[in-house]
TrEMBL record:
Belongs to the class-II aminoacyl-tRNA synthetase family. It comes from Streptococcus hyointestinalis. GO terms for biological process: alanyl-tRNA aminoacylation. Catalyzes the attachment of alanine to tRNA(Ala) in a two-step reaction: alanine is first activated by ATP to form Ala-AMP and then transferred to the acceptor end of tRNA(Ala). Also edits incorrectly charged Ser-tRNA(Ala) and Gly-tRNA(Ala) via its editing domain. GO terms for cellular component: cytosol. Its cofactor is Zn(2+). Binds 1 zinc ion per subunit. This is Alanine--tRNA ligase. SMART domains: tRNA_SAD.
């Protein structure tokens, strides 16, 4: 077996499959494009689903890739096991209706065992297969594999709901008896016993059936096009090749671990307690790659995943004694390890470091809040004479503040308390079940459409013409090809067309189809790309259409012009975003309609009003400069050499179109554009908003819609001017500022009067002092307009020695507000209010000296006040 670096292993995989006629598909962005079923790209095949379900026919049916992926469904196991990761790389080879079982198994065995390639010892390889899949068993035997090395496993069948499915055959490497202390042997594989001896390094999925949940598996129908989908984990392959005990002792992780040693002053021991090293090394890879791909920490979705990863890593850093921000310092090491195939981490290093450091600093404050919560919980236990911290509270510390249960246990035990492990596990399980229930369904492949996949007739889109004569080559009605159609809805393909098929965020053209007499025969309502790339016109048939006849195709020119204005404005907006808020503001989706444009981009905070003003101004300046918009066709390498920017989520072939707007913007783009920026007329931003963690959206309008938007704002301003009695619109800001100043003055006067009234009322309230358990207390109902007035009472009370404890209750609207203040070290205000609040059907909490609560039962206020003395 050859000794190789991880970079060499990855490259050898790609080179081998390239030698077998496969195209190398680049690793896609971790954030899925046009796939709402996925939170992250989580496998090598995830980005190729469009090929397997038949919605797109690939240029080459043989594909290979090395795909970065993220999975966090079992994050708790990272660091505990030898092979769990949140980010990993899947090496894959795929056949879309081309070769099948015989070639896949033969080539897989060649790659693994040939001296020219990985050169694995054959006697160390074992294969599992689906018991009914005799073909795979026989193929392995033909390759020279011993029958004793072939293990039938009932679970070796891949399916996710309806759609492509089939048996799979897995390849394992035997690491020897030293990893099998109980000498169980091959039963470890046959009985699926968790072990470190037989390591799965490759899975070959033989996708040959259309799964149908309504029938037994034996009745599944064969797919019209059988496929091969394989996956080999790079981390596992490298661990086997480099003879590492776990995936972490390889060159993918050890440089990171060495940096953690320097930062912590601790030494990594492969045989000792090294979980924290592993968690940090794993999580920083996920963070660096995900942030580099445009995802940002937040409170939901992908953002929540990243925030949880970061907080878990930081807490493990603290366990290693690292108190300061440190994760961001590991980003260069991650980038250097992966640079040969993923240069983007180092290219975006400054931005990635900035985001991670900022998030670490924010979490430092959260840690303090979590520590305070734990202190309060332990104080409550002590007051109640209990010795065990409840599992729900441990989970809250874990889920909300990122406290690992081990850290909570350590701090609790230092204070003399035990923790409720069982309760924590129960709360964790409930949360996992809620998470599973909320997952978007439908992650399986779509059903193959053989009719559309079978359309091979050529069709050319003409960018320059808005109407032309074309021959009708394909008619599809009711999912069947036909020679003629006279009514209803149909799908049409012509040998050439002026109709733009929806792509790259630009909506499809609409228009009409006429016969030789100029009569309307069909209304075009949509145009999409067929699986083989032709423009597929969705039409409402008005008269007979026949294959082989010539028709006159006319697009809606006004609609096309409006769409083009918005599309070109999108390019200007993208460039302006880079100039104003930074190069990290990359496209995360777009839509160019006739009425508006929508542009999604990565950014970690709301765009300020001043920034929006500068962006809008810059775009309009480029419109006023009347810059020619030039489109050229060239090859992809030349385009990249020109500095053309590729748009997020778009796949480009060898030949591309490059759209240049002077030296201001240069992008790869297959859409249609105006000839000069002046044709856009005017550009106006109408809305900026967040649409997810780390993703912002700008809605804007151009031309007529922009003019109307400005007019609406002007009319609204005129109405305000009339209300303010301002003769000139320019006077409105000063009028408003004057009114605000007057309101502010009245508010101050009102607050002052309230304080005086409260002070006067307090004089009577503070006289009614009672005593219980050796403590003086005041418990009274007061009449106030808001909860802030209760705090004013408390502030006055603190000024003099009226009593040791103050309890005030007020009915405000249909709610009850309660305040507890304490000067006594024996009375914890937060604990006391937790006892009193339920009496008024409420809840609350706070610090030892001040606490607040809200309730809903005003009729029980007297009962609450009467209970104060009994609870001191």
């Amino acid at each position: 077996m050859k000794q190789m670096t991880s970079a060499q292993v990855r490259q050898m995989w790609l080179d081998f499959w390239k030698s077998k006629g496969h195209s190398v598909e680049p690793s896609a962005n971790l954030v899925p494009v046009n796939d709402p079923t996925l939170l992250w790209i989580n496998s090598g095949v995830a980005t190729l689903k469009k090929y397997f379900d038949g919605s797109v026919v690939p240029e080459n049916p043989r594909i290979t890739n090395a795909q970065k992926a993220i999975r966090t469904n079992d994050i708790e196991n990272v660091g505990k096991t030898a092979r769990h990761h949140t980010m990993f790389e899947m090496l894959g080879n795929f056949s879309v209706g081309d070769y099948f079982r015989d070639e896949a198994i033969a080539w897989g065995y060649e790659l693994l065992t040939s001296p020219e390639w990985f050169d694995f010892p054959k006697d160390k390889l074992y294969m599992t297969y689906y018991p009914d899949d005799k073909d795979s068993y026989n193929r392995w035997i033909e390759m020279g594999v011993e029958p004793s090395h072939l293990i039938p496993i009932e679970d070796n069948f891949w399916e996710i709901g309806a759609g492509p499915s089939g048996p799979d055959t897995e390849i394992f490497f035997d690491r020897g008896e030293e990893f099998d202390p109980d000498n169980i042997g091959i039963r470890l594989l046959a009985e699926d016993i968790e072990n470190d001896r037989y390591i799965e390094i490759w899975n070959i999925v033989l996708s040959q059936f259309n799964a149908d949940p309504s029938v037994p598996r034996s009745e599944y129908k064969e797919l019209p096009h059988k496929n091969i989908d394989t996956g080999a984990g790079l981390e596992r392959l490298v661990a086997v090749i480099q003879g590492a005990k776990t995936n972490f002792e390889t060159d993918l992780f050890m440089p990171i671990i060495r940096e953690i040693e320097k930062l912590s002053g601790k030494t990594y021991d492969p045989d000792g307690d090294n979980m924290s090293f592993k968690v940090i090394a794993d999580h920083i890879r996920s963070l660096a790659f995900a942030i580099g791909d445009g995802a940002l920490p937040g409170n939901e979705g992908r953002g929540y995943v990243l925030r949880r990863l970061l907080r878990r890593a930081v807490m493990h850093g603290r366990r290693l004694g690292i108190k300061d921000t440190f994760l961001y310092k590991l980003v260069p090491t991650v980038g250097q390890i992966m640079e040969s195939y993923y240069p983007e981490v180092l290219e975006k290093r400054d931005f990635i470091e900035k985001i991670i450091k900022r998030e670490e600093e924010t979490f430092a404050r959260t840690i303090d809040a979590g520590s305070n919560m734990l202190d309060d919980l332990l104080a409550e236990l002590k007051a109640e004479n209990k010795d065990t911290l409840d599992g729900k509270n441990i989970f809250k510390l874990y889920d909300t503040y990122g406290f690992p249960v081990e850290l909570t246990e350590e701090l609790a035990e230092d204070a003399g308390f035990k923790i409720d492990h069982e309760g924590f596990e129960k709360a964790m399980k409930e949360q996992q079940e809620r998470a599973r229930a909320s997952v978007v369904k439908g992650g399986s492949m779509g059903m193959q459409n053989e009719t559309l996949s079978g359309i091979t007739e050529p069709s050319n889109f003409d960018y320059e013409r808005q109407e032309l004569d074309a021959t009708l080559s394909v008619i599809v009605a009711d999912n069947e090809r036909t020679e003629m159609v006279s009514e209803g809805e149909a799908l049409l393909v012509f040998d050439q067309t002026p109709f733009y098929a929806e792509m790259g965020g630009q909506v499809a053209d609409h228009g009409v189809i006429q016969n030789a007499k100029g009569e309307l025969v069909a209304q075009v309502t949509d145009v999409q790309k067929a699986p083989n790339g032709q423009a597929l016109h969705t039409v409402e048939v008005r008269a007979s259409l026949a294959v082989g006849e010539t028709y006159h195709l006319v697009i809606d020119k006004t609609r096309r012009q409006r769409v083009m204005k918005n599309h070109t404005a999108t390019h200007l907006l993208h460039a302006a975003l880079h100039n104003v808020i930074g190069q990290h503001a990359t496209q995360a989706g777009s839509l160019n309609e006739a009425e508006f444009l929508r542009f999604d981009f990565t950014h970690f905070e709301a765009v300020s009003a001043d920034e929006l003003k500068r962006i809008e101004r810059e775009v309009n300046e480029k419109i006023w400069e009347a810059i020619p918009v030039v489109t050229i066709e060239t090859d992809i390498d030349t385009a990249k050499g020109m500095g053309a920017m590729a748009l997020f989520g778009e796949k480009y072939g060898k030949d591309v179109r490059v759209v240049t707007i002077g030296d201001y913007s240069i992008e790869l783009c297959g859409g249609t554009h105006v000839g000069n920026t002046s044709e856009i007329g005017i550009f106006k931003i109408v809305k900026e908003e967040g649409i997810g963690s780390g993703t912002r959206r700008i809605l804007a309008v151009t031309g007529r819609e922009a003019y109307m938007a400005f007019r609406e704002e002007e009319e609204a301003l005129k109405e305000i001017a009339q209300t303010l009695k301002a003769p000139q619109l320019q006077q409105v800001p000063n009028k408003v500022a004057t009114l605000q100043e007057q309101v502010h003055k009245l508010q101050k006067e009102n607050t002052s009067l309230k304080e005086k009234a409260a002070a006067a009322a307090a004089g009577d309230i503070f006289k009614d002092v009672k005593e219980a358990a050796g403590k003086r207390y005041i418990a009274s109902q007061v009449s106030v307009s808001d909860a802030g007035a209760l705090r004013t009472f408390a502030d006055n009370w603190k000024q003099k020695d009226y009593s040791d404890v103050l309890v005030l209750a007020a009915a405000i609207g249909d709610k009850v507000n309660v305040l507890v203040a304490s000067k006594s070290s024996d009375v914890h205000a937060g604990n006391l209010i937790k006892t009193l609040a339920p009496i008024v059907s409420g809840r609350g909490g706070g610090k030892p000296d001040m606490a607040m609560a809200g309730g809903s039962d005003a009729s029980a206020i007297d009962k609450l006040l009467a209970a104060v003395g009994d609870n001191l």
